[in-house]
Specification:
- There is one protein chain.
- By secondary structure, the protein is an all-alpha fold.
- The chain is 65% helix and 0% strand.
- The longest helix is centred in the C-terminal third of the chain and has 20 residues, at 309-328.
- The radius of gyration is 27 Å and the shape is extended.
């Protein structure tokens, strides 16, 4: 945050938005200020706290200016107040059907109050792992699914090796969380963290959430967990792998590894796969080929004309599978977290 503009007799001191908020925070009582801080995320608390120190020397006239500005802004806000949930739920249900609407609303409906799960954002991964390692894997799965993927990956890695595949499987299979499950979560966290019966804003996981967690994990963790997960549920493991690795990831290969991959792809398959990418991505592939081979691919793509999207996606999926197989046997190297490779 920039330093406040210096005040002169001719130029009144100007405050940024966070500084105006800091002035207001200094004017309210400690209980009210604490209640406001509880509604903020960690970064907002840090920014507001820093600003409160910066405005400690605010003058009486400047306080009046901040208050006047606050009142003016408050008057601009609409006076209409109602609970929008029934109307939004009705619109979603009519547009999407009950099942899809429930899935969407579970992700977008704001939590009623800050609760135990939000508190996890303030804890280290090791603290969270200790919090849940002795709980039922379903509890661990829900909590990890509610973390940022990078933090969730760290927590998963800190759990005992034997339960990691089961927890990842449960994350991938999570659906809408029942009220009974939420109550169980509140009870577990209140015992461990010391909170009362506050509502917890819970989201549910799924294949994409599980894939994000694996993408943020070290490659050694992926190599250990995914084969074990495949033994539990092959379809879920395959779905996670497909969500973890998409065609655009191939563009991250260096020229040597991308060239090796291309030499292992049938020309017809490459033509179909490249029909679905933009010019920059296409040139990235063709740039790793000889000029003659690249011209041949371009000519073949032009001669084929429009292709069905499903055919292009099937070709790209097949190319991804080839890349994963080559990475698995060490023919090509694909970068992973912490300089690990597969």
């Amino acid at each position: 945050m920039a330093d406040p503009v210096a005040q002169t007799d001719a130029t009144p001191r100007q405050y940024s938005g966070v500084e105006r908020a800091a002035v207001l925070m200094m004017l309210v009582g400690d209980d009210e200020a604490a209640a406001i801080l509880q509604k903020l995320d960690p970064e907002e608390v840090r920014q507001l706290g820093k600003a409160m120190f910066a405005v400690a020397d605010v003058s009486e006239n400047e306080v009046e200016g901040v208050l006047d500005d606050f009142v003016d802004r408050a008057r601009e806000r609409t006076a209409i107040g109602f609970d929008p949930r029934p109307r939004i739920e009705g619109m979603m249900t009519r547009a999407l059907g009950a099942e899809k609407a429930e899935s969407v609303l579970a992700r977008i409906t704001p939590a009623q109050d800050a609760g135990a799960i939000e508190l996890l954002a303030w804890l280290d991964a090791s603290d969270i792992a200790q919090l849940i390692e002795k709980e039922h894997p379903q509890i661990a799965a829900v909590l990890i699914a509610n973390l940022e993927p990078s933090v969730g990956a760290q927590v998963l890695e800190l759990l005992p090796d034997g339960i990691q595949p089961d927890v990842l499987h449960r994350i991938a299979k999570l659906g809408p969380i029942t009220q009974e499950a939420i109550e169980t979560l509140k009870l577990v966290l209140s015992k461990r963290i010391g909170l009362g019966g506050q509502a917890a804003g819970v989201v549910f996981g799924g294949t994409r959430e599980a894939a994000k967690i694996m993408q943020s994990s070290r490659k050694s963790t992926e190599q250990r967990v995914m084969p074990k997960l495949a033994k539990i549920d092959r379809e879920v493991a395959r779905a996670i792998e497909e969500a973890m690795f998409v065609f655009d990831n191939l563009l991250e290969l260096d020229d040597k590894n991308l060239g090796t991959l291309i030499r292992n792809i049938d020309g017809d398959l490459l033509v179909r796969g490249l029909k679905g990418v933009d010019e920059a991505a296409r040139n990235r592939f063709l740039g790793c080929m000889s000029a003659r081979a690249a011209d041949g691919i371009r000519d073949e793509m032009e001669a084929r004309g429009p292709m069905r999207l499903s055919e292009v996606l099937e070709a790209q999926k097949a190319i991804i599978q080839i890349a994963r197989a080559l990475a698995k046997d060490g023919t090509i190297m694909m970068g992973g977290g912490d300089d690990d490779y597969v």
